[in-house]
Structures are given as structure tokens and as C-alpha cells.
Write a structure and sequence with these properties.
Length: 238
Amino acid sequence: MAQPLLTVDNMHCGYDGVPVIKGISIEVFPGELVAIVGTNGAGKTTMMKTIAGLITPSQGSLNFKGEDITELAAHQTVRRGISYVPEGRRLFAKLSVRENLEMGSYTVKDRGEINARLDEVFFLFPILKSRADQMAETMSGGEQQILAIARGIMSKPELLMLDEMSLGLMPSLVEKMMETIQTIHKTGITVLLVEQMVQEALEVAQRGYVVQTGKIVLSGASDELLNSDQVRQAYMGM
């Protein structure tokens, strides 16, 4: 059986000594699209930041491609092949679409390689090609979200971590966003998706973990979770 690409083992972490994540363990295998779902404040973003190297866990371990990355900083995890797209887009508002994308490949020095990556992203997202010289702040919310994801792809990640991509989007755009995530996954990138839109996320993912107050309360195949009475009552209002 294939080895996990990412293993999170008994991870504890928080802010200023206040625990947020209390012993979470997950696995993500190469080529998977895995969703971590739960309500706002469940600890999902804290978990993503810890995997990305922005927070050091107080307990437990993180392993990526067979290497212990528990103590690595964010710039080191990017070089290992992890790309984290945070919630709230965090674009460089006054820079153009192209300049924002190039920021995503800051670890690459070869201009030819950067241009090749731009071509790949423009092929995947034609809207960005047509807006290449437009300032990021003048784009719509949905377009900015696509730009944020595309910038994440510019580092050529083996694991793309997407944090609350539906945040602030109209319902009609959430569906489009989920289609975009599926499109990216089909290119061969392993995706870890954190989302409070539980049903929408589980409909595109293969497997899921349900997080509640810093702990995993359910996990399994997405269709099992979608049909679970616990999930339907707690998160889908059924």
C-alpha cells in the first residue's frame, strides 16, 4: 500500500499557551482530495497553519514524504512541496495579477521556469491570462480567490492546502470554487481542503475528517460522512 504523503500524529497546538488543537491525527495519501470540515472556531485553520510551519506544535509530530517536518518554518515547508493558501485571500492588492502569481514562485531563480509555470496557470485559469496586467484589488471576490489559489500552485506543490476558499463568496460562486478545486486535483496535485461549507466540501472530496473543538469526532469516506445522521443534523440542518 502507498505510504501517506502527510501524516499528522497526535498534534497539539494553540496560541499563547491556550490549547486549540487537542491531539489530532490525520493522513493524506498521494493524489487524494481530503476535506477537513467543521464549524467556525473548531480549530481547522490553526491545524493548517501548524502543518504549513507557521505554528510549532506543543506536542505530536508532522511527517511529509517520510521526513519529520515538525520543527520546520513556513519557508522550509514550501521548499519541501507544501503550499498553503490562507483564508481571506491575502493578495498584494496594488500588484498586478502576473506580479501576484510570480510571488508564488519566489523560491525559483530561473526566469524560464517561472514563465513555464505562468503558462501552466494561465492554461488552467484563462480568466487570469486575460487579466494578467490588472491590479488584484480591482478583481471580483471570486476572481481574487482563483488568483490566490493559482499563486499557491506557482510553487509547484505536491500538497496544496486550501483554507476556507468559500469564505465571503456568494452561494453561486461557492459551487464554481469547488469545481475549480476539482480541476486542480485532476492535474495530479494532492489537495487538503479546510471548509465550513460541510456538504459542498464533502461532495468534491474523497475522504473527510470532521473537527469539533480541536478534536476529530468523525472520519471516513465522503459519502459515508454525507449520509451520517450526526453530520446531517449538526452541519447540514437535516
